[in-house]
């Protein structure tokens, strides 16, 4: 009955929010860790948020109060102008500054023309808009696994586009190969789906790796094998990439055979830690895509108030240069600490050095090589250790036993506590393997230590 | 070839932007009127923008500088908290204030529960989301004519939903009747379209009228005639309604037979003149709609920076009370001046007293009762008189000779100049009707007067 009244989209759960990825978040929200008031609470390591450099932005804001208010540098009021500004081409000052920043974050190896940039209310919307522009309902995009769980919502839900996974495996460090792309194409054919392109994340979420040049070449080679294929590179973690990062935009600029069929998605949510401001963008060399996407951006424009603030922030070259370098340094340091802490427990991570997370190998901790065993371990980590991490299965990983752990959304002290908790759990878990299932009792005993106020320093 | 590479949505022009409604805007943008620098330029009367009360908001901002910045009243920084806030349920303080404001603007005849409110990046997105939630591609919504030209984009383009017009005519002041709704249903049947509901604008854009109680009753009666029909009431002009305005929400609250099938769309773009801030909302009593729409709002969330500012503004009851009254007073005064000026030229308006525009009857000025004649007159007004007004045909009006003229997006002085220009044109146009087509030369002679700087006072 309800199904008849509402659309199938509204009534179904194709938005993917029932996955363990989001369930872990809910668990966190019900009982969030706080060093003073809730030291036994859940620590959120399932959220790819960058909280490491707010002090830099706050210092800048102190020095530039007019950017947050509604006055120009010369004191002239700008409220009315901003309140009325709803041109879907965006504030020119902001687009210019964003294009410059996008180049800078990519080591200035490629330039971006502001007129080929479409502003969107976050990358969520940018990816959906590209699907609306590039594929019909019932056509497919290939997406390498493991992939961001939100893509099931962003790419498929309202567009009717299908995702065909490109199965990547640990045997080659989850690298994308031409053979894997071709195999995905064959599976699409079996499902009678016309493939319209590939969508990758670079750096990869959840792998925490940047695409190697060989992978980009394989992707462009694949796309140029037919004249109706596209490559979408979601580069929202470009600011969290290791030195030597190569944007797909850079390689594509030199490839005539795929001209106009490579589209880049950007965002300020991860690099600058501003998800609340809803700033994303599509960059495309195809005029038709830019034109249609610009019109579609009407469904999610960026607030002019926010554009004005960010035009000033990103327009300050002295600030962006310092921010990019310092942000990378802090992320590197934090990542190093997580990797080191896990190593001390005998847990390895995929080598990558990108993103706000590590792709963590816990295969040796599974009772069996199954996704049931992965969920069993995940539930223990969530419900007993009180750490929200993301199981690989929620990212459509093909192999059980991998987990994504985020490291940039908490303080260093909280990370240390999370590592301590995990270590005690792992020790107990492994010993219970031989001695029997006494994990829970052990863990409860341990967690009761954390009721004091010894972590005051954190906030 | 291009059609193959991109989707049909991207390649087609179903977004409706090629209509005369938007063409007039382009013409304005190429040659915008300015009293000093471009006194012969185009005057924009095709834009339903409210510029009459910015002084009230600016004064409030002067007194509350922390709302625009990133500090609380107590001086505590709030930048980080806002930067990270991306919960699609919205800032509680903002939703509470918005719900309160929505009730106040409707004379407190109905209350709104913040938990049934979904924030969207403008009403554009709110309307599209409702279509995604309520209908399948290929199903239809009935929309009374004349209607906002943007609906062809907002309701149809990406959703695949069809619009079936409910033909309203001047014979009863373009009122919606049960007979007209039933006739539209029959036409939908002929097109083999399943009807899923009716979407109205209240107050109406472009009519400038509020729905009469009889019309709301007819609509609810129609919707309750089947158990799978919905009523969407787009009330983005509620703040520009005459005294005694009745929201569909108010009547629906008392109607058990349509419970959960009436959905209200709101926005701050027109009432507060803030289109650049992208704030819209859906209000629904149906849990399934609220839940699905909330998830869909991920594709266009409202910037947290903007939510924070508006929570403070709308949370100030002293301000909202004064603003609502003063805004209505100024709109009334401005509307009165336009109606009076047109009357002096022998041009009538539909009685309404709502919205930021009048629905103007120029049927007597057409060379013939055809849409070709309407376009001929419109082109003269755009290209010779240099006024951008919207022809009824762009609003899917069923009768040639009606035009929408906006009055709240310019200064009073500019309105007077527009009226002066129009009067000279009408006099000349009507006399040329008997003496021959000498309009253009007369008009060019006249417009050359406006090269002096006599309008300095305007800016």
Main attributes of the structure:
homodimer; 459 residues; alpha/beta; 18 helices; 43% helix; 12% strand; globular; Aminotransferase class I/classII large domain-containing protein (chains A, B); Aminotransferase_I/II_large (chains A, B); Ethylene_sulfur-biosynth (chains A, B); S-adenosyl-L-methionine (chains A, B)
Can I get a quick summary?
The structure is a homodimer. With about 450 residues, chain A is an alpha/beta fold.
Describe this protein's structure:
- The structure is a homodimer.
- The first copy, chain A, is of the alpha/beta class and about 450 residues long.
- Chain A is built from 18 helices and 13 strands.
- Chain A has helices at about 1-5, 10, 20-30, 55-65, 65-70, 80-85, 90-105, 125-135, 150-155, 180-190, 215-225, 250-255, 285-295, 305-315, 315-345, 370-385, 410-435, 440-445, and strands at about 45, 115-120, 140-145, 160-165, 195-200, 230-235, 260-265, 280-285, 350, 355-360, 385-390, 390, 400-405.
- In chain A, strands 2-8-7-6-5-3-4 form a 7-stranded mixed β-sheet, sandwiched between helices.
- In chain A, helix 7 (about 90-105) crosses helix 14, helix 8 runs parallel beside helix 9 and helix 8 (about 125-135) crosses helix 13.
């Amino acid at each position: 009955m309800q199904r008849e009244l509402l659309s199938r989209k509204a009534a179904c759960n194709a938005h993917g929010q029932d996955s363990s990825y989001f369930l872990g978040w809910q668990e966190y929200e019900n009982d969030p860790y706080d060093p003073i008031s809730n030291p036994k609470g859940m620590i959120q390591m399932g959220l790819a948020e960058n909280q490491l450099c707010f002090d830099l932005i706050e210092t800048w804001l102190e020095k530039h109060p007019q950017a947050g208010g509604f006055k120009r540098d010369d004191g002239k009021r700008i409220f009315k102008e901003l309140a009325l500004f709803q041109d879907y081409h965006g504030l020119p000052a902001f687009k210019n500054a964003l294009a410059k920043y996008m180049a800078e974050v990519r080591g200035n190896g490629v330039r971006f023309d502001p007129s080929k940039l479409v502003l969107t209310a976050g990358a969520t919307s940018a990816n959906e808009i590209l699907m609306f522009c590039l594929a019909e309902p019932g056509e497919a995009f290939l997406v390498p696994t493991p992939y961001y769980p939100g893509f099931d919502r962003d790419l498929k839900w309202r567009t009717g586009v299908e995702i065909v996974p490109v199965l990547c495996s640990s045997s080659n460090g989850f690298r994308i190969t031409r053979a894997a792309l071709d195999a995905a194409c064959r599976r699409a054919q079996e499902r009678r789906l016309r493939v319209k392109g590939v969508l990758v994340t670079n750096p990869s979420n959840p792998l925490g790796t940047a695409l190697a040049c060989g992978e980009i070449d394989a992707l462009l080679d694949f796309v140029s094998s037919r004249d109706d294929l596209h490559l979408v590179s979601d580069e929202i973690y470009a600011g969290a990439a290791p030195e030597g990062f190569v944007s797909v935009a850079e390689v594509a600029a030199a490839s005539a055979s795929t001209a106009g069929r490579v589209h880049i998605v950007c965002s300020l949510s991860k690099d600058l830690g501003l998800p609340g401001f809803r700033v994303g963008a599509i960059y495309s060399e195809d005029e038709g895509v830019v034109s249609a996407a610009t019109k579609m951006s009407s469904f999610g424009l960026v607030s002019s108030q926010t554009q004005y603030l960010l035009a000033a922030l990103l327009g300050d070259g002295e600030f962006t240069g310092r921010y990019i370098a310092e942000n990378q340094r802090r992320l590197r340091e934090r990542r190093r600490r997580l990797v080191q802490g896990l190593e001390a427990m005998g847990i390895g991570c995929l080598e990558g050095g990108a993103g706000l997370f590590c792709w963590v190998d816990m295969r040796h901790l599974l009772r069996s090589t199954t996704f049931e065993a992965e969920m069993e371990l995940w539930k223990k980590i969530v419900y007993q250790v009180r750490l929200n991490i993301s199981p690989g299965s929620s990212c459509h990983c093909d192999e059980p036993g991998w987990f994504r752990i985020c490291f940039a959304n908490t303080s260093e002290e909280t990370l240390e506590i999370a590592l301590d908790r995990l270590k005690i759990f792992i020790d107990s878990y492994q010993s219970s393997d031989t001695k029997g299932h006494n994990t829970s009792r052990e863990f409860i005993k341990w967690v009761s230590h954390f009721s004091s106020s010894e972590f005051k320093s954190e906030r």
